[in-house]
Amino acid sequence: MQRPWAVILAAGEGTRMHSSMPKVLHPLCGRPMLWYVLQAARAVTEQQLVVVGYGSEQIKEYFGEDFFYVEQRERLGTGHALLQTLARLPQTGELLVLCGDTPLLQAEILQRLLEHHRRARTAATVLTAEMTDPSGYGRVLRDHNGAVREIVEDLHATAAQQAVREINTGAYCFDLAALKRRLPSLSANPEKKEYYLTDLLPLLTAEGHRVEALMLGDAFPALGINDRAQLARATACLRERINGQLMREGVTMLDPATTYIDWGVKVGRETVIYPQTILEGATEVGEGCLLGPGTHLIDSILKDAVTCRQSTLWESTVEEGARIGPYAYLRPGSVIGPGAKIGDFVEIKNSTIGRGSKIPHLSYVGDATVGSGVNMGAGSIVVNYDGRHKHRTNIEEGAFIGCNSNLVAPLTIGAKAFIGAGSTITRHVPPGSLALSRSPQQVKEGLARRFLEHDQEK
Fold first, then answer.
1. Are residues 282 and 388 in the same domain?
2. Mean pLDDT score, 157-182
3. Residue 452: pLDDT band with limits 50, 70, 90
4. DSSP annotation string for 6-58
5. Which of 285, 337, 332 minimizes the C-alpha distance to 308?
6. Whether residue 181 is found in the same domain as residue 66
7. Predicted pLDDT of residue 155
8. Residue 405 lies in a domain
């Protein structure tokens, strides 16, 4: 059987979002809402056409050339939007029509809609749902045989029609031959001067076709997002799906409700995630890791058995068994070697830290290569910027950097060199050498009393 096509309606501005961004580009768990609709459609259809209007260039730029785009220059309703696609569609077959603001609509539901349409052999099948409060939604009116007679928009419904609780979700399956024959004869609504796709259904029934409905038990997955409050609720639902799947695969989450993981993030089994942890973008976490509480990973890779507590990692890689945090900050380009330790209030930027090296606390390492087995004492700083240019520092294996040392790049500290605490090093240090750079200490016996007494007088 020929696979169906899909048209996704994504031309609306979404005024209730109060945003310069097209509504369908607003993200949920790291992806725009339109992305989820397209992924669901891709799973069950041959080709997808996206009807764009407001913010069309932004939409095309994000999604690229994987999809066909059709411009709706005047936003004159859903029927008018679909009319713009007729010339691009096959003459026969099936067509799914979906809304671009329904990111929770899964491929499994679309497959059920297609199967129902095929069994019933109808010209159109509408995806519907029953709601306790259907206010604002089009009401589905059926005839005595259970077929769909018409859909009345809430604005135009009578009091009796408003009492109907079955609503139109905005998703349809059409027979393409019937659609191409009747859609061009659609008339504009006299009040709003728009072409409603729902008005096509009576035209099909008048021609002798049957219009069916597939009613969902739960309306929420099929409902569109119109404002930021609805976006937040949909995001929470999607997050629950993501976290649930990871937990079924062997990940432990102490509090899934406060664990925020983007779609597509990978987490290995036996990893434990504490509350208030955020995993974003292309992040990958290995097996047996411990994350959080309060850890934020952005486009980062953590290998197996990594511990990362209360820290932020951005475009960085952490090898097996390394320990990060608490309160560490790894900036883009950082690579932390196996078994290394990056401790509290340490910032690493565009640097490679070797196997088993330790930077335990209160240090900054930027644009550096640190060999294996290096120890950097508290308060040690790599001075990589001269006000105009960044310079590299190379600290070879086994070196010891004393507390409160400044290493002024460009600089090489040789293997197993020892830098005395409080030194400012501006020249290369040969392997195995001791380097000291301190002002001489002066002791004036008995002089402390003068200063202490002065302070007491104040």
1. yes
2. 95
3. confident
4. EEEEE----GGG--SS-GGG-EETTEEHHHHHHHHHHHH-SEEEEEEBTBHHH
5. 285
6. yes
7. 84
8. yes
Residue 112, φ and ψ in degrees, nearest 5: -65, -40
- 233 in a structural domain: no
Tokens (6 digits) for 346: 């340490």
pLDDT at 271: 98
- Quote the pTM value: 0.92
Question: Is 47 found in the same domain as 191?
Answer: yes
Q: Token pair for residue 76?
A: 């004159």
pLDDT tens per residue across span 128-138? 999 999 988 99
Domain CATH number, residue 153: 3.90.550.10
Give me the DSSP letters along 244-279. Answer: HHHHHTT-EES-GGGEEE-TT-EE-TT-EE-SSEEE
Nearest C-alpha neighbor of 318 from the set 342, 333, 299, 302:
302
Looking at the fold, whether 115 and 206 belong to one and the same domain comes out as: yes
Q: Closest Cα to residue 176, out of 254, 77, 85, 278?
A: 85
pLDDT per position as a tens digit, 260-313: 999 999 999 999 999 999 999 999 999 999 999 999 999 999 999 999 999 999
Per-residue model confidence as pLDDT tens digits over 249-260: 999 999 999 999
Is position 430 within any domain? yes
Asked whether residue 455 carries a pLDDT value surpassing 80, the answer given is no
Q: Are residues 327 and 216 in the same domain?
A: no
Count of domains for the chain? 2
- The predicted-structure confidence for 403-441, as pLDDT tens digits, reads as follows 999 999 999 999 999 999 999 999 999 999 999 998 888
- Same domain? 356 vs 298: yes
Cα–Cα dist 252/274, whole Å: 9
Cβ atoms of residues 238 and 222 within 8 Å: no
CATH number at residue 399: 2.160.10.10
* Spatial contact of 212 and 114, defined as CB atoms under 8 Å apart: no
Give me the domain span that covers residue 108. Answer: 5-222
The answer on pLDDT for 456 being more than 70 is no
- Confirm whether 389 is a catalytic residue: no
Mean pLDDT of 235-246: 97
> Could you say which of 26, 80, 296, 361 is catalytic?
361
- Confidence (pLDDT) at 189: 84
Q: Pick from 207, 222, 237: which residue ends a domain? A: 222
Are 294 and 423 within one domain?
A: yes
The whole-chain average pLDDT of the chain stands at 95
The verdict on 210 and 284 lying in the same domain is no
Whether the Cβ atoms of residue 153 and residue 138 lie closer than 8 Å to each other = yes
